């Protein structure tokens, strides 16, 4: 991945990339990214990744149904997140649904959009760990193509307001 970031070049605007998943803390990442977008004059890109497992040919009909249900669930999650961003910052975020391996899709989205200036994640405040994305990216941070901002899932709206 060698795409140059163009987010501050003429004709471009910086964007935060937020992953909308099934964790409780996704809202903190959306909140921070939306507040940041207001102050930076940028935008927000919301990504939902559907990890498709290998499908056995004899179950192809069932796999198609499962895939359609996953897309429906992804659209519903993005609707909630986009509504939240619009309520926070009066912005309409870009929405992406990708299928495949999580890290591969995440890197492809960043590579394809030179205006993405950072990835915003939220860490779970629970004892079970920081959450799947924070844990996954911990091993890749040294070579990641954009800065990663990790927001504590325990921060209130007021606390995030003071940071963004």
UniProtKB/TrEMBL annotation:
It comes from the Bacteria. InterPro entries: Rossmann-like_a/b/a_fold. This is Universal stress protein.
């Amino acid at each position: 991945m060698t795409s140059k970031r163009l987010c501050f070049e003429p004709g471009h605007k910086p964007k935060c990339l937020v992953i909308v998943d099934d964790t409780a803390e996704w809202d903190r990442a959306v909140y921070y990214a939306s507040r940041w977008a207001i102050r930076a004059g940028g935008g927000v890109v919301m990504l939902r990744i559907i990890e498709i497992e290998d499908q056995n040919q004899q179950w192809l009909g069932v796999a198609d149904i499962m895939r359609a249900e996953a897309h429906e669930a992804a659209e519903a999650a993005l609707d909630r997140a986009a509504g939240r961003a619009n309520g926070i910052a009066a912005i309409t975020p870009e929405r992406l649904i990708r299928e495949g391996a999580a890290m591969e899709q995440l890197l492809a989205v960043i590579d394809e959009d030179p205006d993405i200036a950072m990835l915003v994640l939220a860490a779970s405040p629970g004892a079970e760990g920081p959450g799947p994305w924070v844990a996954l990216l911990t091993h890749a941070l040294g070579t990641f193509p954009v800065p990663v901002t990790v927001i504590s899932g325990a921060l209130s709206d007021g606390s995030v307001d003071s940071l963004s």
